[in-house]
Amino acid sequence: MTEPSPGEVAAQSRRSMISGQILPNRVHDPRVLDAMESVPREHFVPKCLRGVAYVDEDLAVAPRRYLLEPMILARLLSEAEITPGDTVLDIACATGYSTAVLARLAETVVAVEEESELAAQASEKLAALGVDNAVVLEAPLTAGAPKEAPFDVILINGAVEVIPEALTDQLGEGGRLVCVRREDGVSRGWLYTRSDGAVGGRPLFDAFSPLLPGFEAPRGFRF
Predict the structure, then answer these.
(1) 146-167: per-residue pLDDT in tens?
(2) 148, 157 in Cβ contact below 8 A?
(3) Which of 51, 96, 134, 222 has the highest Cβ tally under 10 A?
(4) pTM of the full predicted structure?
């Protein structure tokens, strides 16, 4: 009996990720499912983690930087309702996995990464996969990409305690921002939308992700 090739094993792992993690968690958008099944997650993690690239947890790719748990990423993308004509801002893209998935859903993706080594990795890995509708910018995560705004969708890769106004200002009318928000010890996926110039949000589902550096709430003084 012929042993399956590494590519065949990875493809089966992606199918198992869809059936075991994503579908049971209320993600049924066929475009999101197809994107998650098509992008090789193992391509975006260190070699030592390729064997566990599809486990249902966040994967560390650098100090304090992670790829979001597949179920959480898929649910956020589904709730964002990305259309083929959308322009998307991908905040904290790390090695570029979320950017590659978004590139299959949207017309254009602008990814922001402030760690120069990660930004370089993301650009290289996306190019290696032939992704030609995404660009990686090296810039502060909290600043976004104001010169490229407005955006139809903004994804923040990681938990936040505060969302900088600089990011919500980059949402176009009808735009959606999705993230994991941590507040008073409770962590949930959130959807924010801009309507008639104002931005409002609502919680979607319980979710835990590591806190993204730079998005902590100011701590009060103690006397």
Answers:
(1) 999 999 999 999 999 999 999 9
(2) no
(3) 96
(4) 0.94
Instruction: Specify the DSSP element, H or E, that contains 5.
Output: none
Q: What is the dihedral of CA 73, 193, 174, 77, to 10 degrees?
A: 10
Band (18; pLDDT cuts 50, 70, 90): very high
Amino acid symbol at 104? R
Whether 187 contacts 208, CB under 8 Å: yes
**Distances in whole angstroms, Cα of residue 25 to Cα of each of 33, 61, 179:** 12, 25, 17
For CA atoms 185, 161, 33, 66, give the dihedral sign: negative
CA distance 21 to 38: 16
Domain at 184, CATH number: 3.40.50.150
Q: How many CA atoms, within 13 angstroms, populate the side-chain half-sphere of residue 202? A: 5
Residue 223 included in any domain: no
